Amino acid sequence: MAIRTPRVLLIALKTLAGITAALAVLMQTGCSSVFFYPDDVTYITPDRLNLNYENVFLDTPDGETLHGWWLPAEAEAKGTVYFLHGNAQNISSHIMNVAWLPGEHYNVFLIDYRGYGRSTGAPDIEGTLHDSEAGFRWLIEHPDVQKRPLFLLGQSLGGALGTALASEWVKRDEQPPLDGVILDGTFSGFRTIAREKLGEFWLTWPLQIPLSWTITDEYEAHERIGDISPVPVMVIHSVRDGIIPFHHGQRLFEAAEEPKEFLQTDTGHGATFVIPAYRETVLDFMEGQ
């Protein structure tokens, strides 16, 4: 009589084989792909939110084409906000984070990194860093931006990219100067968060250090945030952030130089601007510069 392998064991073996294969790929190629979850679905467009907007397509130095939205202020602009979004989906799923700003008299420019939305290419850390700078260089040439305060708002992954961009901008004494940097729910470093996440899973726990070494440590935000000074920095982090733990925001704030502010919030990850009081605090920060 043939011995039959229990169905539950077969499922377990298949699952283990799949995980082992995935780990093999990570060991061979590095695990920077864990930072990027793009798609090309259009979730909502600015006109559905009664916002005026312009589609922007710009070319990167390495041959990719990025898509973005320019959202003009609804009245005389007080300034401009350059928004760098988080690691999933695309600008059409993140627009609610900044859709309120034109009504507060701020222009907004937001882009999709390579591989996201209508942008070409495939994302990686170096590529998205280049994309964040390419978008910023397009923005500073816009006539409605010049001679007005200029702010960078980065959320989650966008905050890590924004920290690297702002620190280099300040160190190179690029013009025009930034008037403020706002980091919302940002991790303190690419390698740091990769090691932390790998350590949460029993199968990758023993490999958290060697796998995290495949991530560059050249752009650790906690090592770069101090270089943004004397540009004011606001660090925002929620005590209930289930994606990027609160201690990342604390570490960034401690590493930042004055002038700096910390806004402790109580929302889920990426939900800061659902709360009107948090919006007001950010507006106060910008209008105080």
Automatic annotation (TrEMBL):
InterPro entries: AB_hydrolase_fold (IPR029058), Hydrolase_4 (IPR022742). Pfam families: Hydrolase_4. The keyword Hydrolase applies. GO terms for molecular function: hydrolase activity. Residues 76-192 form the Serine aminopeptidase S33 domain. Keywords: Hydrolase. PANTHER family: ALPHA/BETA HYDROLASE DOMAIN-CONTAINING PROTEIN, PROTEIN ABHD13. This is Alpha/beta hydrolase.
